[in-house]
Model the fold of this input.
Amino acid sequence: MTKLALVLLLFSLSMAMQLVQSTNDEPKEVDEWIQKLHHGEEKVSRLHFYFHDTLSGKNPSAVEVAEASRTKKSPTLFGLINIFDDPLTEGPESTSKLVGRAQGLYGSAGQQELGLLLAMNLFFTTGKFNGSGLTILGRNAVFHSIREMPIIGGTGAFRLARGFVQAKTHFLNLTSGDAIVEYHVVAMHY
Done:
């Protein structure tokens, strides 16, 4: 089961990175964009939205894909891997305006404390960042009041992005695992 989990994790990460790194621009357009970089100033964009992770109900946005043989015996669910396609909204209500999707996976990587390894693409579907995305990779200690994770790249308007996100749990149902998480993003890009 451990080998299956590792294979699923590596496959999912490779697929996620391919999705984030895809672009509609032709190679010539990308080369021209790169040539202009030394003349451009780096921008700082601040974003705010809510991430809705739903594990319960008929249409969950996150599902378990693997677990280790000892996961059920672990107080931190060590070895559990979930994959998700979560809506991002302007406000905490599920009826709030949809601004994008968070797609990726998280695995329980802590043995003493619940700490998730999070690999996530934030893909925006409205506004000036429509069609652009950010990639997050880091540790998410879900029971800490504020968690900070690095931005490791981006696409579209966020090419060559770096920066960080701060996550704060707005709502958590300990029985179902459903959560609404407030995100503040600081992205530096060209």
About this structure: The chain has one domain: 2-189. Residues 2-189 form a domain with the AOC barrel-like fold (CATH 2.40.480.10).
